[in-house]
Give the backbone structure.
Amino acid sequence: MEGDFLSAIQLTRSYYVGEAEGNRNGLPEDPEALKEQVGTKMRELMTASARYAFSEERLTDSTHVTPDNRGVDRTSLFENLVSTCVRACLALDDLDFVFEDLFQHYDDSGISRIFLTQLEPFILDGSVSQVPPRITQRIIAMHAEGGHPDLAEQVIWHIDPLCLDINQAINLCQTHHLYDALIYVYTRALQDYVSPIVILIGLIRKVQQFRRDRAYRNSTAEISEQEAAIEPYVINAYKIYPYLSDILTGMTYPSEAPLSEPEANRAKKDIYTFMFFGRSSVWPVGEGGKLVLTSDEEGGVEPTYPYLRLLLRFDAESLLNSLDLAFEDSYLNEETREVSRLAIIKVLLDILSSSDLAPTDAMFVNIFIARNVPKYPHFIQISPSTLHDILIFLAEYPDESTREDRQLAAEYLLSVYTPHEGERIQRLFEEAGFYRILRHWHHQERSWRPLIFAYLHDPELRASEVFPAVEDILKESSRQTGVLSSELHDTLSDALQDLLHNGVTNTALIIDKFAPDLHQKAVDTLGVDAGPQRFTYLRCLFGLPSLHDDHSDGWRAVTPSPTIPQSLRHLYVSLQCELDRPNVITALKQFPVDFFEWSDVINVCETQNVYDAVVWCLDWKGDSEGALKKANFIHRDLTAEIIGNWSPGESSRDETVRRLDTIVAVSHQAVRICLHYSRLPDLPTTVNVRDMWFELLKSQMECAQAVSANVALRGPPASQDDDENQLPAQGDTLTRLRTLVQETFSSLVSVSSTHRISFPNLFKRLVDSATQTSKETHYNEFRTILTGMMESYRSDGDILAITKQILDRDVFNIVEELAKVRSRGWKLEGGVACSSCGKGLLSTTGGGPPTDGFKLSLGGVAYHATCFQKIAV
């Protein structure tokens, strides 16, 4: 039965709002008449439903009986009745039934909490805002008694303030420190915009008194406890600043909904009058009012403009931000107002002159004035002496963290004021770091030297901004003459430290472009301990890739400036040897032959133990014989060092590996030189290729023999540590030296077919040399090496034999194919050309012999025998 009533109400509401469709038999077609008739029925249904739900007969009828005699829970019925009736009444735009008849039924039955709980969602979503005070009281009391003041605060915000019980709401907010709701009640219900300020000033005063007394507390635990207790006061006290911002710009707090213009003007007038009054005020005005005090001490002397001073002392920056917003409001444009922008500025200047503000607070006030004077020139007019004092204060204030804010304020002020004492002001700005202002001045005056330093000394600028600006200055200054003036040349010289600090590479480029004679001073400025930075400078100067670039595709031939002194060229070689040892030769190849004094380069490389570069340099300067002699000497010398420094331990092993790597690198250079001369078509008469190979192989074999003899001489290890550390190092060394000889021999084999080198003769010379100068152990080592060489030679011979058989077969096939083609009448134009040298393989007349020896074929491609020999090797 109850469900039928609720369904009927819902269906009737649907017809009323036009949501229902279908059978409307008996209902008028006119919309207004339909609404009136359906509305009447809806009220009748709601009244009948309420009467039935709360009738005594319904509570005793059979619907409440259950088999276990426990009864039926009808809570959901009463909850749904409230929500259904509220929606129906909202459709009718008449809530009298809900607030009068329906609420009375619930209240009389002692279940008003159900009614209030179901009504609250409609209040919070804004559907219902006009609620009778007696019901509002009950909702707020329900949450307050239930320990949920935050829910009561939400209800207060969403109810029309005229529907509130003011005393109840204020007491609740004060008891539970609900200051946002308290401000809402005062401003929206009472239209009192000063009382919230008075209340929050009281909180600020408590916080200030705590901070004053904290210095007299001795116990850290006591201080921490007091700070925890005062923290809620601090949080709520800070609400005064957003409150002032909202009201002084014509908005409500905290919702920031716009106020009507009359109410907004009245609120602004009340606040300005109270805030900027010259002495303490009584509030509320009239009987019962109390003097609103600000002094930290009870009974203390109240200063002029006490409330403005208190807010400045508590947080000057926040207060001035609020005033910044207030200055933008048109309310202050009318000269008939009691308060104006000029009046506010004069009050602030009066407070500044009293010298009782903290330096930081005074700094914020000066910034505020400096920024607003040029923004409102028609409303704020201050004497030049006052503006001058503000400008001096902004420059002299020592706090580095506020430098940018002070500089911006000074820029605003300078837009309407031209100071006297120009030199003093400039000096103060330099000390303050107002480089943006200084750059503007110097550029206007075309003072290039200070302009460059203004860019270099500004910590806010990145290197990507500094160097293009400096280059533009140098270009502009030399645009007429095309030559850098002596003043700017000296400026670059004096600014080297700052330039290098901003970027070594960019400094090198600028110096090379405008003052290349300063390169030496720039490198000296970096200092002897700044090796990587000096190396970066010189690599950039020479046009080489950065040390961190991929050298495999970053190397390129360079054309360095001829003005670079020899001392820097040799310094670069020294740093290259020190910092990028593997690429010394590759780097040196990029330079012209006459760029270095090669004797000095050789000395540097030898001092840095980069011996492969020493050998390469000797050969590069044309002394190939000296290069090979040097390589042989290095082989013997490093081998002696390896033998003399063998000892257990990782350090000894690392040194051995380093020396072996050097021997291998030197050998590769020596082999390169031998191969070069072995392949020359026109060999100089002063060069003997056989002697080159002989001396190189002899030197390498002697190194291996020396190590082998030393290993045999040392005998078995004396301890287990020696066995684990020393013998593996000796064995690895001997293996690498033998492998090195094998590699050199393989290189020799690749050119042994030329008439300049006879392998049998070379082999005989090596054997004779070993038998004449070596002991038995040396001879055994020599035999081991030569045996390996011969095995390698036999392997190469076997490969060549197999290759010859394959080529013979290819020769037959290609000649057979040519014969078939000729038999069909095809005439060879120019004959068959060698795929290597391009010369003819067969004569064009047909049937004649090959024009250049017999031909070979690889995969159907024809070559001369000599050409193919080169390819096979």
